Amino acid sequence: xxxxxxxxxYTAAVGTALTLKSRLLHAQEIGPMITRRIPATGEELPVVxxxxxxxxxxxxxxxxxxxxxxxxxALHENGARVFDTAxxxxxxxxxxxxxxxxxxxxxxxxxxxxxxxxxRGGGRADPAAARAQIxxxxxxxxxxxxxxxxxxxxxxxATQLGILRELKDEGRVRYIGITTTNSNRYSEIAEIMxxxxxxxxxxxxxxxxREAADIVMPLAQDRGIAVLNYAPFGRTRLWRxxxxxxxxxxxxDFGAMTWAQFFIKYVAAHPAVTVVTPATSRPSNMIDNLGxxxxxxxxxxxxxxxxxxxxxxxxx
Length: 316
Prior knowledge:
Layout: H1 4-30, E1 35-37, E2 44-46, E3 50-51, H2 54-61, H3 65-77, E4 82-84, H4 92-103, E5 110-115, H5 127-141, E6 146-151, H6 157-169, E7 173-180, H7 186-195, E8 200-204, H8 216-223, E9 226-230, H9 237-242, H10 259-268, E10 275-276, H11 283-291, H12 300-311
Parallel strand pairs: 3-4, 4-5, 5-6, 6-7, 7-8, 8-9, 9-10
Antiparallel strand pairs: 1-2
Helix pairs in contact: 1-11, 3-4, 3-11, 7-8
């Protein structure tokens, strides 16, 4: 039986989703979804996509298929393409792969996954295990070639990047790359960017986490390497910092109507960033996030103002 409390929660959720939908449509009236070119080929991608760690992974692990389906449908129906996942994100890759096949949209999605079977602490990767993990990814998405596979968390690049190069040469992977979200390892990823023929990196970067902009992101521009941005909300850190605070009125000058769009537009405005991939398990949040990729982006002076505002907030 539907209680009054359940009804109020349901109608509030629907109202929020409709409001965010209208906000996104308003943003798109200002301009279409912003796209960025992959330097290696010139292929254009919408600047906001979907990540699948954190809450998305939790929902997939719970086998809440309907929720995952609604998030992926919101991604697809609102003009975005990039879905970033990994075998290490619980059931995310498997469940999402099942859904995109059911929806018949696997060819529309730019599927970015990862490989890492290296041991902890820099252990070597077993080539056979790496190839088996990659094959499972092919089987899950039902797409060959896969758009992008990256070595996850700098796991034994000598072995695993070598395998990815072979697969790219065979035409089974379109782009290859490597990721880290550990600032202590930025020097390592920078060395690989200088020495290896990679197409992408995945890196953490946010308005209160700007270290990657010192070396890694300028190097990506110099080397012609695309950048997938991870954790534009600082996982949940930025949400804690702005909890209970109103969005500044001047955010409307660059089309940010929510804090999510404020955070995403800050990241997307960096010229090195190709796609921002915030994770979410809610369709309304997916639509809200996509609004950060529509309309205009803040200029450099505004980005400094945005950073100063966040820096002045109490730490999470």
